[in-house]
Amino acid sequence: MEYKNRSYTFLILVIVIIGTLLRFYDFPSWSFSNDELSALQRTQFGSFEELINKGVIVDGHPPVAQVFIYYWIKLFGASEFALRTPFAIFSVISIYLSYLLGRSWFNRGTGLLLSGTMAVLYFPLVYGVIARPYSLGLMTCIGSAYLWNENRKEIVPWFKRFGFILLASISIQTHYFAALLIGLLLLYGVMTAPKKQTLRNLSNLFYIFLLCTPTIPIFLKQFSKKGLSWLAPPNIDFIFDHLFLINNKSLLFIFVLILFLILGLISKKNQINKKNLFLCLYLTIFHFSIGFLYSIYVQPVLQSSVLLFSLPFYFLGIFCCFPQSKLKIILALALIITLSITSNLFHNNYHVINHFGTFKELVKKNKEWGIKIGRENITYVEHINNPFYFEFYKKQFKDNSHPVISKIENQQDLLTLKETIKSIETDYVVFSWSSVATNPEIYDIIMDKFSVIEDQETFFNSQTTLFKKGASRNALHNSTYEAELNQLKNWTVNNTCQDTLYLFKGEKSEKLDSTNQFSSTFNIQLAKLNTAADKMYISCSAMGYFTTECKATLVIEYFNEQEQKEWYGVDIENYVTTPYKWSKIYASRAIPKNCVLSDLVKVYIWNRGKNEFYFDNLEVNFYSRENILF
Questions:
Q1: What predicted TM-score, i.e. pTM, was given to this entire model?
Q2: Is residue 31 exposed (0-12), middle (13-18) or buried (19+ Cβ within 10 Å)?
Q3: How confident is the model at residue 472, as a pLDDT?
């Protein structure tokens, strides 16, 4: 027995060492993510009261992680290494706690398999080293679940009871999805505990509530917002995407887990704690389902990252079925570690790429261009959530460049960009963005004047591009409607719209009014473009003119014989703002993923306000997506 215990101790030690090396290797070299820089930006306050009011309540997370970061950087600084180290340590502690959890709920073998998986899987690795609530919440959730089970015994040492109360209260005040998991666990405990443990359970609940009392006002203010206005509600694909993610984005890994389940089910000697197996299923399913249903019927909150807290229970439910043969456990453990590390290195590129939008590398590249070309010859345009995110790294690289625009999130910003580009006198423009939705119309506006992509660096969810003045860019397909030409390939001409009163180019324009709501229309089948749909995007433009009021829309529509697949419109009044003046309109869109080559694309102007409106030079281009991320 002593030899067996030593061998298990040796194995868990090896697992912890592997998990530590994977987390600490080169992790300071990664740029801070958008969320980490947001947390840093929300520490720039002189008092604790300001921190809570301006740094915590606005964020939507409970205060523990943000308060920890606030005081940590005062002691150790805000470098990647200094700030991420404690969170990486929390993640390492989670590995050992996973072993204790599996051993307490089932047996040592299950604990080893769970800890080995948590040590090397891509999902807990990536979220285990960033300075956000995830690794802290995961550590306290696993610790709480372990100590909760220990508290179900007849005799409980005081330190285990105190530890459970403390860790549960920290979990609740670290992340709301961690709080949800703890709530589900506490509910199950109250519903299933023997009567003689009722007083202990109620007193534990009381002390946990008491420790959480100071953050109740924060909770009430944050929950008044109901959720994340910028997040889309999940669809059925989210379930499959998340399952693929938590299984290391590997079909082979999924096959191995299914094999483990089969081996466990056919093993006659295998004895499973069915109550705890049910508990694992209950926590995994309800933790996901509540978030999913809330996101659909109330306000979106569900992302894969917030389901990290229930991840251990998903794997516990699988590994508890595995045969408890020491040799089989060691072989299974070796297989899990080998498969996971291999897929992380060669498929998930864990140590090669940034797994979140980068900022450091963009600033570094922009400075290199400034040195090479001369910063006085470059105008900078940025699109990020907060200027602080680039400024943080500009201070590190001693780069004193300043953008003319720092965020482009709506039509008014696009109009500002359009006017700004017109006035730029430098020969180069640098456009940098990270971790935000980026409208392709931004590229079209810039490339009207700076049409050459001189250089570009692309990272995960981020990009910086150096544009230069030059000749017009080449399109995969181009078609321009000129009103004086009645026969145009791929155009259905509306002759009743033609007019000669206001002209931009040529002898005729088109006039839309209460009797003519729809312009001449561009139609083409995607197959005729001779390019895969996912390799191109459509870029449309027109010159618009109005005399009284403009309420019109430039429409891009995809359809087949049975259905309309997508309708996208840009309100022209966002670009044409001054009467008696020709102004350029832009509308760009990626080809939808559900489109096939037999589908049709249609472009036209819809005069939805039925006011008098003129347009000319309606141009449709299909460009390669090679240099543009969507």
A1: 0.88
A2: buried
A3: 74
